[in-house]
Amino acid sequence: MPMLSKACLFLLVLAVPGFARADHELQSFLERTLAAARAKDHLPAVAAMIQIQGKVAAASVLGVRALGHLEPATLNDRWHIGSDTKAFTSTMIARLVEQHALRFEDTLAALFPAFAKDIDPAYRNITLTQLLSHTAGLPPLTDDKDLPALLAVIKTADGLKAQRAAIARKYLTMPPASKAGEFEYSNLGFIIAGAIAELRTGKAWEDLIREQVFVPLGIKNAGFGEPATPGKLDQPLGHVDKAGKLTPVDPTNSDNPPAIGPAGMINISLNDWMLFAQDQLDGIHGHGRLLRADTCRKLHTPVSGNYALGWGVKMQPDGSPLILTHSGSNGFWVADVRIMPKHDIIVLLVMNSGDDAANEAIQDVGTPLKDRLKPLD
User: Fold this and answer.
1) What is the distance between the alpha carbons of residues 377 and 306, in angstroms, rounded to a whole number?
2) pLDDT in tens, 43-72
């Protein structure tokens, strides 16, 4: 079972003056950059897509779906994006807020009336906003050592909705792990937020993501958990370091328990992920398809430090986002998204390994792109 990884937020700003150079030159540069990173960081496969002013300016994929096999990775393949799922969960919940099913100010005591009296006093007035901004005081749930206790809770309930509700009950009746209002990255907060959405709607988180995000945006090449079919190489496989050698992992045992879904279990193609990222950018400009402009501001405004609701954010002096970013990994994959509203640019990066070298590849690709796309004036 993979590690419940903590996302790394690399606030690397790519400053771009409109169309910096011809698209074919950017395409060639991206291919060379990915090839260099793949060789340096020993990546089975790596893929990236750059969109400028609503159009794909460059896209490339290099490598194989699984080491030891010949099947090449393709631009239509789906990639596990780990904690980048959090932006989807927060967007889905924001949609429910606009539909008056929830309020960002709702407290845990009000949201879980069935066991409100058992909730630890420190959690009773914690809000939905705090759950989505990692400021609720909850345990991180980011390490293998956290898994046995979580699995014990999951085993007490049948079905994903019941499991997530059981997780909420168990951890909210325990003392907090940190002070409320202070940033402490927590996968648990998003699992509980997913349980809240399920309780209010009667629908599973997976169905809510499809209904509230995938379908309205036309996202079809996406799913949950590992993308490959067991026994087939119809999608890339994640990889793990075994005795110093990267090894593909069987998709039947290469992800966290499905109950963790709201914190990090979407798989998706680059084209479809770009549909979501573009709508987040459009929302900042006031014409998103999923959310009103005021709701987008709520979603993209930092609550503590550089973290908003499912997004790492660096703000401009005028109070608008300079960059939205997030990285995700379940230990077998790495994915990174960067949205730059000022220049209408989006960069997506994915790879099917999750070791330290794969995490370094984010910088090995991002830094050359920053230099290549810098202003010409």
Assistant:
1) 29
2) 999 999 999 999 999 999 999 999 999 999
| Ranges for all domains in the chain classified under CATH 3.40.710.10 | 23-64+77-84+221-372, 88-206
H or E stretch including 327? strand 321-328
pTM (two decimals): 0.94
Sign of the four-CA dihedral 284, 288, 293, 299:
negative
CA angle 35, 54, 79 (to 5 degrees): 45
> In CATH, what class is 23-64+77-84+221-372?
alpha beta
Q: What is the pLDDT of residues 310-327, one digit of tens each?
A: 999 999 998 899 999 999
Candidates 103, 194, 183, 195; CA nearest to 138 is 183
The residues, ordered by sequence, that sit 6+ positions from 89 with a Cβ below 8 Å of its Cβ are 132, 190, 193, 194, 205, 209, 262, 263, 310
User: Superfamily for 88-206?
Assistant: DD-peptidase/beta-lactamase superfamily (3.40.710.10)
Neighbours of 30 (CB within 10 A): 22
| pLDDT tens profile 239-270 | 999 888 999 999 887 788 999 999 999 999 99
Distances (CA, A) of 150 to 2, 89, 203, 211, 279: 14, 20, 22, 28, 34
